[in-house]
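Extended Data, panel c. Modelled sequence:
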Amino acid sequence: MKRLLLAMALAVVMLVPATSASAALTGEYARFATCPLSNPEVGTCLYAETRSGSFTIGNKAVPIKNPVVLKGGLIPPPAESNTSTLVAPTDGVVLSKTPQPVPGGLLGVTAPTWWPQILRDLFNETINNGFTGVTSTLELAGPPSSVKVSLLAAFTGNGTAISMPVKVKLSNPFLGNNCYIGSNSNPIKLNLTAGTTSPPPPNQPITGSTGVPELLQEGLLAVTNNRLVDNAFAAPGANGCGGILFSWAVDPFVNSIVGVPSPAGTNTAILEGTTYLGEAAYLRTIQ
């Protein structure tokens, strides 16, 4: 019954009739301001905001504290497929480059758990903001069309909801400006599901959530509390750390700290937040 209701909610946002209007994309619609509505093939505008969860590579788990946004337009899938191709938003930013603080920074030092919370927070903040502080930024490692979205899978929990190649940038004065785990030619390949994963060991299956759909306004659907997961992907080693002159020495250091390369079954992505879907035909009438 739950899956049936979700499928019906999806149908609502896709089939809302376009009516004449003169207002701009404001209020709840403002998040679709960069949706590529000029492309007549775009049927749905996507704005997926991740506000919590974590991204674990090797032995480094990075909690998501700062919102990450995936956005663009979706071309309806062909008859033989459930997967839509993503079209870049007008500002060109498909996946926001949002830095997340790495607990313990470069040295992996964190306050003992038995310390009072106020002392733990102060110590960890000092480490993260000092010379050894590191931020981790998830970036798209391919063109916008490399992002594939299945709204059906997202609403039912069956199959891959979002697949995309990514790389992780590690930022720190010591590491330089081009320190990455993964690259465009050798990316981390995420296959996120709202259902249950089937990872190789030692990881065990984990389960996502399809969330709660709500029709906010005409042509606008929000799916709150959704949870997309993947713990079956592999991660390559670091590259470019320390700059051109020193990457030969710094890359192995980063590999040892992070624990990469790490094979499939030793990494985990958990993305929690809200997905907004806008019916493109209606949005075109109010932009």
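Residues 54-70+81-216+224-274 form one domain. This feature is highlighted in the accompanying rendering.
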